[in-house]
Design brief:
With about 625 residues, the protein is mainly alpha-helical. The protein is built from 23 helices and five strands.
Length: about 625
């Protein structure tokens, strides 16, 4: 099938048809899963042939991670480590600022902005540049996460596919969200949470993009399956392994956990202010080219890591380098046996990670903020758990506080409590802590309402340009189609037996765009537009063979005189149509006229003006 045939096939399906969204979401999920696999492979390749080979530094990873290269302990060369990070920052910065400046920073915010303000459009080159630049940033020791890049990679493909298929802006936004869910569902092995994350992360307050949940769920399931098959058996293992089995010992533990929520919020606010403070500072420096700034940030992050590294001996010394790269190795220790590191080391890793992540990403490096948030929240939670256990003699496992801290910290910082609760459970394979996780995440969300890590979020759907026109029910209440459409305006109808030759000549003399097709009894049986006819203009041999019946579509979106204007306006916007046939209620197929989008919006504007003037 040609691209045009595929486009017509997809556009011919009903908007809410199961088949349409199963097909499109599965396709986006397949590419997202493949993209997640290639991204992970590229990242490990970059680590092996930069950090490991040159600097002798092998970053720790999560227990469920699939290594493509053997883990070998080397003596770390600290000067070479900083040099590798500087080179990585320079290469990444040059790629981004030369080919796709919108790929700098953490990609989730870029996807959120595209959803609300750019009709879901992301340039085709962005996913490619984001993949390479992020793999280099992470692979050379930059402190960042994988979710931002993979979210933008999946979102970029979803947007590109929707554009190529000539789908509506609404459909493109849904497919963008499908790409976000597919990428995150695969890379974090959390398909359920990813579908909710894609719907929840768009808004700052208690709101959710309900239209994307089902398509995003299909995309994340398919993406997770593709990714897991490609990396082997470990793909079906939770990211942080199956060995974490904690449970709430007493409801009284909710009291110290409430105190932990306050501490997590203070840390989240510190993270947000540090992150955007460094971003503003980097933007003010005009003497340095933008593509060089990520290298400067990488050097400073490396120096922070080395400084912390030199303050500890043995286990703690090695762990301090967790403030570089993903930091998942030390988070794994915090989840399993935080006493190995101790309270002071855990807190230094957490606040060091805040600084190195801000230096890496806020200066223009390419990477996500979710992964570092897990490390920060987990280490703070583990430190608080150790404090309660050792000093206050609270009977609990500090590793449980690490899991709850992961969820609570990001729920507050990103305003996504529901998806974060489920995602942390899926990543750790432990579902027995849902109650305390919900408790802490909800408190963090409520206490952190004034601050957000994703500045492109809008408060609610009412504030989103994507939903302009969705919230006008009160203004149009009680108004019917019969009150708006013109019964006197002449509408050219075309008998179904009219030849294409006659239609072509008729179009040359008419300014009409939509042409209802009628049968011998005068009943409407289909409709076509002048765009439908144009595809035949270069093939004159079929002008006398084809008739209106061959050009028209029988899937007519119509309205009746008694339909309210809200439903008519929703059909205009959801199907991206300019006119709708008005059919009689008592005589099926009888055409009464055409309702245009222009006259509907004009009526709405008049009605709104009357409301403002108090005339209605």
């Amino acid at each position: 099938m040609s691209t045009e045939q595929i486009r017509q096939f997809v556009k011919g399906l009903e908007l809410h048809a199961t088949g349409k969204w199963f097909l499109l979401s599965s396709l986006v999920g397949t590419v997202s899963g493949l993209g997640a696999f290639l991204f992970q492979l590229a990242g490990q390749f970059a680590v092996q042939y930069s950090l490991v080979t040159v600097a002798g530094f092998t970053p720790g990873e999560a227990a469920g991670e699939h290594p493509y290269f053997p883990h070998v302990d080397h003596e770390v060369s600290l000067p070479l480590l900083v040099l590798v990070m500087a080179c990585g920052g320079l290469i990444s910065g040059w790629l981004v600022y030369t080919f796709a400046p919108e790929a700098e920073g953490h990609g989730t915010d870029a996807a959120i902005e595209a959803f609300h303000h750019k009709k879901g459009r992301i340039r085709a080159r962005v996913p490619v540049i984001k993949t390479i630049a992020s793999a280099i940033t992470l692979g050379t020791g930059g402190s960042a996460g994988r979710e931002g890049p993979i979210a933008q990679i999946g979102a970029g493909f979803g947007s590109l596919l929707a554009t190529r298929l000539d789908l509506s802006d609404r459909d493109r936004r849904i497919m963008l969200a499908c790409g976000v869910a597919g990428g995150i569902g695969a890379i974090f092995r959390a398909p359920l949470a990813a579908s909710l994350f894609a719907a929840e992360i768009l808004y700052r307050d208690e709101d959710i993009e309900s239209d994307v949940i089902v398509p995003a769920a299909i995309s994340s399931i398919v993406s997770f399956s593709v990714f897991s098959v490609l990396i082997g058996a470990s793909g079906f293992t939770p990211l942080f392994g199956n060995g974490l089995h904690y449970e709430l010992k007493s409801l009284f533990e909710l009291i110290p956990m409430a105190l932990m929520s306050v501490m997590l919020v203070l840390a989240a606010v510190t993270y947000i202010k540090t992150f955007y403070g460094i971003h503003k500072l980097a933007a003010k420096i005009k003497a340095v080219p933008n593509f060089v700034k990520p290298a400067i940030g990488a050097v400073l992050a490396g120096l922070v890591g080395i400084g912390l590294h030199l303050t500890f001996d043995d286990e703690g010394s090695r762990a301090m380098l967790a403030v570089l790269a993903t930091g998942y190795g030390s988070l794994q220790i915090a989840l399993e046996d935080p006493a190995r590191l101790g309270i002071s080391a855990l807190l230094l890793i957490a606040f060091g990670k805040i600084l190195t992540t801000s230096l890496t990403i806020s200066t223009g490096g390419s990477g996500g903020v979710f992964g570092p948030s897990m490390v920060i929240g987990g280490c703070i939670g583990a430190a608080i758990g150790l404090t309660f256990h050792d000093l206050l003699e609270v009977e609990t496992h500090p590793g449980a506080y690490a899991i709850i801290g992961m969820a609570g910290f990001f729920a507050g910082a990103a305003h996504s409590p529901i998806s974060t609760i489920i995602m942390v459970s899926e990543m750790t394979g432990d579902y027995k802590l849902l109650l305390p996780t919900m408790w802490v995440s909800t408190l963090c969300f409520l206490l952190c309402r004034r601050w957000t890590l994703y500045v492109k979020q809008v408060p609610t759907r009412l504030d989103s340009p994507a939903h302009r026109g969705d919230f006008i029910v009160d203004v149009l209440e009680g108004i019917h189609v019969s009150d708006v459409f013109s019964r006197t305006r002449e509408v050219i109808t075309v008998p179904e037996s009219t030849s294409l030759d006659e239609i072509v000549h008729m179009l040359a003399e008419s300014h009409q765009h939509y042409f209802p097709v009628i049968d011998g009894k005068g009943n409407m049986v289909g409709i076509f537009t002048d765009d439908d006819v144009r595809s035949y203009l270069f093939d004159e041999t079929i002008w006398r063979l084809a008739v209106a019946r061959d050009v028209m579509t029988t899937k007519v979106v119509s309205v009746h005189p008694d339909d309210d204007l809200n439903s008519a306006l929703q059909r205009f916007t959801s199907m991206n149509l300019d006119e709708l046939p008005v059919l009689a209620d008592d005589e099926p197929g009888k055409l009464l006229g055409m309702l245009t989008r222009r006259e509907t919006i004009a009526f709405y504007n008049r009605r709104l003006k009357e409301h403002k003037q108090g005339e209605v």
